[in-house]
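Per reviewer request, we include the raw input and output of the structure prediction for the construct analysed in the revised manuscript.
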Amino acid sequence: MQRLYDFLRRHPTWVDAFWAFVLLGMSVLGGPIHSDYTVGVTDSAFVPITLALCLSVALRRRMPEKMLVLAALAGFAQLIFDVPMIPADFAMLVVIYTVAANGARWASRFALAGGLCAAPLAQMRWNDEQTGMLGNAVLAVILTVPFALAWVLGDSLRTRRAYFAQLEERAARLEKEREAQAKVAVAAERARIARELHDVVAHNVSVMVVQADGAAYVLDAAPDQAKKALETISSTGRQALAEMRRLLGVLRTGEHQEVGEYVPQPDVEQIDDLVEQCRTAGLPVDFKIEGTPRPLPSGVELTAYRIVQEALTNTRKHGGPNAGASVRLVYFDDGLGLLVEDDGKGAPHELYEEGGVDGQGHGLIGMRERVGMVGGTLDAGPRPGGGFRISALLPLKPAH
């Protein structure tokens, strides 16, 4: 039964042709619906009018506008050749409904106008003198109701389809927007994690390399200093592993982890530990805080920490063996100021102006991205008199 139903849904014209054949049989067997009219199946007007109306039913869904015109012509032929109402006239209701539901707008309006005029014209052409003028008028109104209902049902179906189509279009558009937002969010998260990994790896590994070189240099002459350097390497490695574990935990989905496995994000208070770590690694750093320290937004605190971390890492990498650095934190009423300077050799021009070449300069790119995310400003370049300078202003209010 389901196969038959699916077959009929795929071939609606066959269904319409079946009902057109039934309507044709009823019309031929029943003849005109009028007591004073007798006709045979070979009548010159009755037969083509009946065939035209039945054909309009059979092809109504394939060619609704053309079938409407055919049904209208058949109706006018009835009036002209004096063929009273026949069972095939039911096709007009079917065609009006179809055009109102699926046809063009002009065809729908034409169907409504024709349907409203059909019954009055028929009553005027075949009026019953015994009923009287008032009775014929009432009968015309009553016969007009089916035509109006057919058009209203078809137009309601059209409106409903348009409404569901609009809902589907809106759902598809929202789905595309969600996908686009998800892609943007994924890209932003990847960039954030890449910045974090770069900062963690670049800083901690550079400290470990410096300490390892120092330990190898004084291993025989000063074992105590070598041991201290190895302890610094060990603690720095553990810190790097802890931060990387936190970052990798963000990438894990569907896994339940205990809160203890994560470490908090660095903040401004940990800059002091960062400076002390650099001093231990052999980089002289002068650290000062101006203004009244107070709690800051977490994004601002993380950005400030990473800027200082990357700046001191660059000093160790590019400043030379005798370079020193200074770090200034200034608390303003509406933001936090950072100033990191060194007296080393500075950095190549392409690293801070062109955003990095051959895979280099990603630290400064990450700085600018971080500062931009919190709505701040960053200035990086050579320092008058030698060395390098990085200054940033981080507002307390987030950027919109």
